[in-house]
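Thread: Modeling a multi-component assembly for a lab meeting

Hi all, long-time lurker, first post. My supervisor asked me to bring a structural picture of a complex we are working on to next week's group meeting, and I have zero experience with this. I have the sequence lines for every component (709 residues in total). Could someone generate the structure of the whole assembly? Inputs are pasted exactly as I received them:
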Amino acid sequence: MSWSILRTFCHWLLVVAVLVAPIICAAQDQLRMRVETLTVPPATGPLAMVMVQNPGSASWEGQIVLRPPSSWELSPDTRAVRLESGQTKRLAFNIARGRNLETNRYPFEVVAIGPDGEMTHRQETFVASAPFFRVQVDGRPDEWGDAIPISFSTGQRETTISTYWSRRQFSLLVAVDEQELIPSDASDRSSFDAVQFALAAVPPPDQAPESGTAGRFEFLLAATRNGGARCFRLVTPDMCLNEATRPRALESLVCEQVEVAVWRNDGITYYECSVPFRSLDNAILPDAGREFFFSVLVHDPDGTGLRELARHAKLWPTPEDPQAWNRWEGGCWDDVSPLGNKIRWGLCTSKY
Amino acid sequence: MRQPFQPAFSMGRIALATGVTLLLTGALLASDADRGAADEGRIGTIIMHTVLVEDLDDQPLQAGESAARKLMAKIGDAPLQAVLVSECFEDLPWKQQLLQGIGSVIPSERVFGTSTYGSFTQQGTAGFDSVSLLGIAGDGISVSTALVTELGVARLTFEESEPLIKERLHAAGKQLADKLQRTDRDRLMILLADAHSPKNRYLVEGVQQVVGPDFPITGGSANRNEGQNYVYYQGKAHADSAVALMLSGDFEVAMSGQKAMENDQVIATAKDGAAEALAEMTGQPLGVLAFNCAGRRGRLHRPEDEWNAIRQALGEELALFGLYCAGEVGPLDPSEQVPGVLVGGSGWHVMFTVLGR
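Re: Modeling a multi-component assembly
Sure thing. I ran the full set together rather than chain by chain. Output:
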């Protein structure tokens, strides 16, 4: 009897293996593809960048075709590429003719044509760019009409992020649709509403990555009970990675250099701030066309929990994600780490 | 079937040289400026000099005066035809102080230019709080100038208002070119405008309705950062405006234009473009105009790399007047060329023009 059962088991195991093996192989052969954010409004004819990664065990060779939104022209729209196992490449496509869209949502298709057929990746991306404008941090959103806002939903609640730059400062407005604003000094709450953001320089490709250090600035914006607001500098680039993720007493991290205002109007909480470039140790040059890394987490403890801009940007999960954000005490942390903090962002001159 | 690997953007390469007929007799007056050698049946002299001054003391007035004095010291007694200003000071009050400083040395009616994102000359590069001047002097060259204000496109977007942008800029370009005094010795138009890429193409098209599709035009768009978008005409700042300078005389022009958006290509196209324009110049080079895209500079890992490449191509002695702009006018990348049309307005380009004789 035992032989019979064993034979039957082996038979089915073989069947399952035969059926499943191609699926596993196909999955291994699949490329990961992602369209990066556009760091300049597309009407000026910048580049669209596509990340492709070969997670398979064998090399992959073929063509990557980028299909832009309708009425756009790319020149060329096809790139030949060879990817070794585990290799990632960043491919540039010249936007010969593009159009800015008020929605700031740009649908792309990336088609990988390889020896085993075609694979299509569909994705929306957005313009991640700060126009030049010297904003006053005064609790009034009307100055932000010339920004290029990015909106995304989490649990049916909207978050809108706008950025500006001027010669001396990088400015941010985050509009959070939420039920209630919990200030950071609320006595009866263990967690509070806040906006956390990271800024980092894009290192030249020929520069070896600094291992072991945070390589980024992180700031936290939160309201206070008296209608005021505070900024905390959570992380500086020279901190060691482990230290950068650990919570520290926020009171010791208050950053007076960053102007901040938090206010609430019509169900929306607004976080507005300006970070002097000087306080970023020249990590970001205030220069039109310059790129840097940026990302935002919104903490909404009594509502949606954590809201991640990186999810809207379709960043890939990476092994480094657990070390990408400081886990300050009172935030909406989960067992699953938020996605990384490196969304490409640009400094542009104007949306007009 | 696989296609061969192609770079993401084609590097446009156009070069041209306009032949010049020497007019030794019977030349027309081409200038608002001094009557020169042409009237006397001589070729005359042409002088081009540049200076670059960085203001480290928050003193734009003194910076302007200092730059102007240095320039005039180089030019000496040669009759000054025009001074081109490329400045990167923040906000109108500082810009006006700078112009006042320049005007304290140089007659304001000779001063033209634009707000930029920075400048580069054979001496170096500079960004915020800097001014660069190009002096065009001598009795072998003359300059006719024109200004058009109220272009009416600054806050219009291409997506919503392209037909209106096209209509207004075609009209403005035509009006600008119509205002210029024309002669048969016109060699090069310099166009400076508060109309950035991609709007600048329509301004150029408007100008071409008057001067023709094969006339050499180069130029750049003013810094379009909020509150910085000025062009300068006879020493005064104008927003929402365009300035044209028509250079006339017995000289040749060689041009090149190349486009790039990534570090290595930005450096390579700058070097190749400069070398190409210089090689096309059959006469003795007098000076170089370089209208460069500020966005290109933003893509450099080390901002000085592009300038070093240009200097390698041009040498260290030839007068170089370089501006970082929000749009460029000159020979376009092949992907953007219109058949039979010599130049156009675009972005992400570096446009070199070598003047020589």
